[in-house]
Design goal:
There is one protein chain. The chain is of the alpha+beta class and 567 residues long. The chain is 49% helix and 10% strand. It has 24 helices and eight strands. β2 (255-260) and β3 (263-268) form a beta hairpin. The termini are far apart.
Length: 567
C-alpha cells in the first residue's frame, strides 16, 4: 500500500478493484493492526485506515477512470449492442452501489479511528499510523466530492458516542420535530370593542392590534407572513379598537420614542420593557435623566441598530413573531436570523433568540409564529400559573406598566432545516460560540420522526440557546465537508486565522496551511459528536414547570442594566 505506482499499474493493467472485499489474512500481510484488519474490508478502506493518503487518492482517481472506460467499452462491445438500455443501467447501478458502499465504509472507518486515536494518549513513532494521517485520508475522500450519507452519519455518531464502531449495524436516518413555548403579553384592564374580533382574539391580541397602527414598523402586506395581520391590517374596526376613546389615555401615556438612524419610531415602553431587560433599563435611565421629547413629552431612547433589525425586534416584541420581510434567499435569511440572535442576546430578549433558532431549524422558515399562527395557545391559566408567569417579568416591568402575561404560545417546527446548509453552517457555529455563554431560560424539545411521519415517544429537552442549531450545523459540515471547504464563510475564517497568526507575538505558533485548518475543523466536529445533542446521549425530557401541550414555557426576560440611554 506504500507503492503508489504499483497500485496504479495493478488497477490499470491488472484489473485490480480497490472496492472488492478481500480476505482477512491479506490484511495481516499488508501490516494492518487489529483494528485495521477489522475495519479495512477493501483495499480502499485499508489504505484509509492506515493513513495512506496518496494511496487512497490514487485508488479513487485511477479506478474512477478505469471503471468509466470499462462501462463505455461494454456499451460498444459488438456482442452487447443489441441489449436494451436497462441491461447496461442495471449493471452500472450495481457497480455504483458497490463503489459507494466501499467509499462510505472507508470514510466512516478512517473518521472513527482518527478521532479515537486522537483521544488516546499515544505517540506513534510511525507517521503512517498517526491519527492526523487517518483524518487526512478522510479529508482526501471529502475533497474528491464524497458526501457522508445519512446512514453513515448516524453510524459514525453512534460509534463515537459508544467508542466502538460496528460497521454491520443498520441505523436509520433521523429527522426531528422541535417544540418550544413563549409567554404572550396583553394590555391590563384594556377596554375592548367586540366588533370584528372573536372572544379568543380579544383575550390575547391587544399588542398585536396596537402594532397594526404603528405603520413605521410593519412590513408591506405582500411580504407579510401572518394571516391574522393581513386580514385586519386595513379593517377600519381594527384601528378603531386600538384607538378607542376610552383607551387613548392609557396608550398615549405609555408612548416612548426610539431614535434609530435618522428615524423616530413611536412605540410603547411597557411591552418593550416586558420583552427586553435592556430596553427596560434604558427606558428607566432616560426617565431618570429626563431625556424626553419637548413637544410630546415622550421618553427618548437611542438605539444603535439598523432600522431593518430594529423593525424585526419590535415586531417580535409586539406580536411574538417577525411579521415578514426576511430575505427570500436562504443564505441571506440565515445571516439575518443570526444577526437577530446576537441582538437578542444583547437586548436580553430570550424569546427572540428562541424564534431565531426555531426558524433556523424549520423546513418552512417563512411562516408566522405569533399567538394566532402558532401550534397551540393556552389562555385559560390558573391564578397560580398567572402569578408564576407574571413573577418572571417582575424584574423588568414597572408597577405602572400596562403589559401583563396573558397566555402561552406553543411553537412546533419540523425538519430538515431549509436554512442550515453547507454555505451557512460555519456562521452558525461561530454565532453559537457567542450566545451559549448566556444563562437565560431557553428551552427546545426534540422528538424523532419515523419514516411514517409519526413522532417517537422519547423526547429530549435543551435549555441553552443554539445548542440544537449548532448540532445541526455540525451534522451539515460533516456530511458536506468538501463543499464547506469551498464556501466563503470557511475561506473567510481561514484567512482571518492566518492574519491572527501573522500578527501574533507568540513565536511558538506553528504556521498553518489550508489542510491544517481543514483537519482542525474536522477534528473539532468529531469531538462534538461525543456529546451530540440530537442523540441517545442527550438529557431525557423533563416535564416543564408549567405544562402546556407537553411543551416548556420560556422566561421572557433576563436582567441587565444600562449606564446610558444609548443602547
Amino acid at each position: 500500500l506504500h507503492d503508489v505506482e504499483s497500485i496504479r499499474l495493478l488497477i490499470e493493467a491488472g484489473g485490480a478493484d480497490p472496492h472488492e472485499p478481500i480476505e482477512r489474512r491479506m490484511y495481516r500481510a499488508a501490516g494492518g493492526s487489529k483494528d485495521e484488519i477489522k475495519f479495512g474490508r477493501t483495499p480502499l478502506s485499508l489504505a484509509a485506515c492506515l493513513g495512506e493518503t496518496e494511496s487512497t487518492r490514487t485508488m479513487m482517481n485511477v479506478f474512477g477512470r478505469v471503471l468509466s472506460s470499462k462501462q463505455q467499452a461494454r456499451r460498444q462491445a459488438p456482442l452487447l449492442r443489441k441489449q436494451p438500455e436497462s441491461y447496461f443501467s442495471n449493471i452500472e447501478c450495481g457497480e455504483k452501489e458497490k463503489v459507494d458502499t466501499s467509499i462510505q465504509v472507508a470514510l466512516v472507518s478512517s473518521l472513527f479511528l482518527g478521532w479515537r486515536d486522537s483521544k488516546s494518549e499515544i505517540t506513534a513513532e510511525d507517521d503512517n499510523t498517526h491519527p492526523l494521517n487517518r483524518l487526512s485520508s478522510s479529508l482526501t475522500l471529502f475533497k474528491k466530492g464524497v458526501l457522508l450519507d445519512e446512514a453513515s452519519f448516524a453510524l459514525l455518531k453512534s460509534s463515537i458516542a459508544s467508542n466502538e464502531l460496528h460497521l454491520d449495524s443498520v441505523i436509520p436516518a433521523e429527522i426531528y420535530r422541535y417544540d418550544a413555548a413563549y409567554n404572550q403579553h396583553n394590555i391590563a384592564d384594556f377596554k375592548r370593542r367586540n366588533r370584528g374580533f372573536t372572544y379568543h382574539d380579544r383575550l390575547i391580541s391587544d399588542w398585536s392590534v396596537t402594532l397594526l397602527t404603528v405603520q413605521e414598523i410593519l412590513p408591506s402586506k405582500e411580504v407579510m407572513y401572518c394571516s391574522w395581520a393581513k386580514e385586519h391590517l386595513n379593517k377600519e374596526q381594527t384601528v378603531a379598537n386600538a384607538k378607542a376613546t376610552q383607551n387613548i389615555h392609557k396608550l398615549c401615556s405609555d408612548e416612548c420614542q426610539l431614535l434609530v438612524e435618522d428615524t423616530t419610531l413611536v412605540v410603547h415602553r411597557s411591552i418593550l420593557a416586558a420583552k427586553s431587560a435592556k430596553f427596560a433599563a434604558a427606558i428607566r435611565f432616560s426617565m431618570l435623566n429626563h431625556d424626553v421629547d419637548n413637544n410630546s413629552g415622550a421618553v427618548r431612547v437611542h438605539v444603535d441598530l439598523s432600522l431593518k433589525m430594529t423593525r424585526f425586534l419590535l415586531q417580535h416584541c409586539y406580536h411574538g413573531s417577525i411579521l415578514g420581510g426576511l430575505s427570500p434567499h436562504p443564505l441571506i435569511c440565515c445571516q439575518e436570523l443570526l444577526e437577530l440572535a446576537l441582538i437578542a442576546e444583547e437586548y436580553l430578549c430570550p424569546s427572540l433568540s428562541l424564534e431565531c433558532e426555531m426558524r433556523l431549524l424549520s423546513a418552512e422558515p417563512y411562516v408566522c409564529q405569533c399567538w394566532h399562527c402558532c401550534h397551540s395557545l393556552q389562555t385559560d391559566l390558573t391564578i397560580r400559573d398567572r402569578h408564576k408567569m407574571v413573577s418572571v417579568d417582575s424584574n423588568n416591568v414597572d408597577e405602572d406598566s400596562i403589559s401583563r402575561v396573558s397566555g402561552v404560545c406553543s411553537l412546533r417546527v419540523n425538519g430538515p432545516s431549509r436554512l442550515i446548509t453547507a454555505e451557512s453552517a460555519i456562521d452558525i457555529l461561530a454565532v453559537s460560540q457567542q450566545v451559549d455563554i448566556f444563562e437565560h431560560k431557553h428551552s427546545i424539545t426534540a422528538q424523532k420522526i419515523d419514516s411514517r411521519g409519526e413522532a417517537s415517544t422519547d423526547k429530549t429537552v435543551y435549555q441553552k440557546p443554539f445548542v440544537v442549531a449548532k448540532s445541526y450545523a455540525i451534522k451539515t459540515i460533516l456530511q458536506n465537508f468538501g463543499t464547506v471547504l469551498k464556501t466563503d464563510s470557511y475561506l473567510s475564517q481561514f484567512h482571518a486565522a492566518l492574519t491572527d497568526m501573522e500578527n501574533s507575538d507568540n513565536t511558538e505558533d506553528v504556521p498553518m496551511n489550508e489542510d491544517d485548518m481543514s483537519l482542525l475543523l474536522l477534528q473539532t466536529c468529531l469531538d462534538d459528536l461525543v456529546d451530540f445533542p440530537l442523540g441517545d446521549r442527550a438529557d431525557k425530557y423533563r416535564e416543564p414547570s408549567l405544562a402546556v401541550d407537553h411543551k416548556s414555557s420560556e422566561t421572557e426576560n433576563g436582567s441587565g442594566s444600562a449606564k446610558a440611554s444609548r443602547i
